[in-house]
Each structure stands twice: as structure tokens, then as C-alpha cells.
Amino acid sequence: MSSSNRDARQRWAPRVTVAAVIRDATGRHLLVEEAPRGTPVLNQPAGHLEPGESLVEAVIREVREETCRDFSPTGLVGVYQWQVAPEGSTYLRFCFTGPAEAIEVCERDPDILDTHWLHPDELVPGRWTLRSPMVMQCIRDAESGLSYPLTLLHPLGVGDDG
Questions:
Q1: Residue percentage of the chain with pLDDT more than 70
Q2: Taking 80 as the threshold, does the pLDDT of residue 5 lie above it?
Q3: 27 three-state secondary structure
Q4: Burial state string for 24-36 with b = 16 or more CB within 10 A and e = fewer than 16
Q5: pTM exceeds 0.85
Q6: Which residue from 56, 31, 45, 55 is spatially nearest to 119, judged by alpha carbons?
Q7: What is d(CA 91, CA 17) in angstroms, rounded to the nearest whole number?
Q8: Is the pLDDT of residue 21 over 80?
Q9: CATH superfamily of 3-147
Q10: What is the mean pLDDT of residues 3-17?
């Protein structure tokens, strides 16, 4: 391996994110509208894993910040890998499912333009732009019943050396 390839591999790190598929009794999904590059897009409530957090803690925090709802993860829908472009960022998304209840007093993240409850068939191209292909894949997988137990995750904590 050339030294430039080795250097690039040493610098490379995927961006770890979490997302929540939240479905109501009528089959609608809670989505957030945001404009990360100036154009509105839809996404699940989602965001980056922060230092010291477990994946479950991160998804609970992100749902609260983006939707003003208390999220109770009940399962892991899947783990998704998406590379934006051949030389672009790679995202590893851990997608959870579960219910969420509204919080009475909360200030939503100012980057979130709005929240929407939508059926999957309303997410047609041209009507809405999705932030990434992971959004629809997470919905499809949740709709098909995929949900792995949270015991699949093993947060070992800070400084644990096993």
C-alpha cells in the first residue's frame, strides 16, 4: 500500500449517527423538515453520536431536541452505511423504533423548520426531498417489521478495558 493511501485510511473516519422511526396508530411517521444546505429536506429525527453517549442516549436526545418529544426506543431497526460520493463522507446510521410522547415545555432545535406526520406513500419524489436514501430505507424496514432487541447493543462505558 502506498504511503498516500495509508495516510488517507488513517485520516478516514465514518460519521456515526442515530435516527428514530416513530409511527403513530394511523401508520404515519414523524419526520423533521430541515435545510442543511439551504434547501428543505425531510429526515427522521436524527443526529450525531456525541462523546460519552451510548447510541440509545443519543437517539433519545436527538428526538427531544428536534421534535420536543420523549422517545422510548423499543428496538433497533438496522444499521445503515451510506457514502455521499466516491470521495465524500461515509455515514453509519443506527436506526431505532419506538413511541414518543409530546413534552409540554420544550424549545426545539432552531435548525428544524417543522415536523410532519406523513404516511410512507406521501413521500413521493417531487413532493418531498429526503435528506438521504437512508430515510426511506429505514421506513421500509420498520414497515416490514424489522426490529432487533436493544440487548444487541453493548455500551461498555468510558475507560472500560474489558
A1: 91
A2: no
A3: coil
A4: eeeeebbbbbbee
A5: yes
A6: 31
A7: 7
A8: yes
A9: Nucleoside Triphosphate Pyrophosphohydrolase (3.90.79.10)
A10: 73
